[in-house]
Amino acid sequence: MADTNKIDDTATSLSRRTLIKGVIAAGAVSSGAYLFRTSVVRAQQSAAGSAERLVTLTVNGQQRRVDVMKQETLATTLRYKLGLTGTKLGCDRSECGACTVLVDDVPHYSCSMLTHTARGKNIVTIEGLASAEGKLHPIQQGVIDEQGFQCAFCMSGFIMATAGFLKVNPNPTRAELAHGISGNLCRCQDYDKILTAMMRGAENARKVS
Amino acid sequence: MAIIRDIMPAFELFQPANINDAVSLLDRHGSDAWVLAGGLDSFDWLKDRIKRPKVVVDLSQIAELRGVREVNGGLEIGAMTTLTEVVRHPVVKEKFSILSHGAESAASPQIRNQGTLGGNVSQDARCWYYRGGWKCYRAGGNICFADTPTAINREHAILNAERCVAVNPSDSAPALIALEAQMVIRNVKGERVVNAEDYFVGPAIDITRMTVLQPGDLLTAIRIPATWAGAQFYFEKVRDRQVWDFPLMNVASAMVVNGGNIERIRIAVNAAAATPLRLTAVEDAVRGKARNAATGEMGGKVAVTGAEPLRYNGYKIPLMRNLVKRAISGVEEAKWA
To answer: B46 to chain A: which residues are within 8 Å by CB?
Structure first.
């Protein structure tokens, strides 16, 4: 019922002038929201009466204290509160894999996990793969060796998914790896080269260990 | 439609540490409470603002809901055991491989790493009108948008439709029905156990629910008896995309064959109706018969008796006939091979 009322209101009360004004304002707000999403996140309220909770997350081996809303997803916390923007948000619906991180060595879509659920677990993002001295992770080196990506928006997700898969199967065939990282999409359709790069990464990793 | 609107609306979050606390929370909050398992179904509803629960009870911290235990030659699988854990479990693979195949065919690796067996069988319908927030029968309204002359209903039901034509999308459910699994349900009053095929409710019984779970109920475990351990199994799922996609239809069968004859059989399909269907008429028709292509053919014909296609899902009738045939007599070698 509420929805029906809303549609009626819009139809009767909108003049052309207010519509145009509204569209301009909406454009400004939505582009601003993208640039300043951090402030939007901070302005959101938790449920009435429930305090924000300061939690400690283990991210890339560090203890990070962070103020987290009840309804906040891990991807939001990582990107907009901890500044770890290597984790990308593509669909926000468990459909693209760009937000993949390791939680206790297992690949998860961080857009579809509450940050509160990840408390006490060991979270690794793309920023945590290279060594402290800056030496790239074998899979990252594989990407460089094979020039594996085009635009690379999906890259951190693919690398994290591969890193998780290799912990279970360090010596996969090309078909096995393809199945293992089938939960990630590449909008450039660069799958063949990505797979080559990930296979090279697996090979690099076996040489290291 | 998936639109990113920053973050979900606020809710109160509880993370109970054991089953008792969880059921008392669910009892206290009744229909205001939302049970969160893996979250892969839940977050779509919450992010789209279509369902707005006041209270979310997250089961992720309850250790006793996780894991696979061996009980009397069978298994008891905690409802919060992830699909990946089910797929990789050595006893599931060895004795009940049909469940391993069913669980492996669901969604994508990351979803299986987080999605749970309990969540997979309890998930809501995926009818896109319903998921889009249309006020249909299932959402408490008085129309089915998928059953109008212009509706796009390729994924919908061919059997047992009753006002609502949505299907149950679970891939593990038919395997569990074939294995004669039982669902263990807890609430503050105690525990009850229902057979897997009785766990699901169709629109004729309650159009707004998919399972027997009422507010306050919690699915805690799934028991698989030793009955079908090591039987001959068949599982097949047909879908448009080989990852992520829900079934257009799937089939699962467990069979004991003696001297070439089918001695015992259980067979179930899903995505054909609002509930996973155990095909008892097919079981009765093929029991005692030779396991061959003719028996499979006959079973397939029995399976689709009474099927009524909508405008765009007529293909599901031959699909179901062939899947049931394969589940009985196996996949034939191509004649030219």
So the answer is: 71
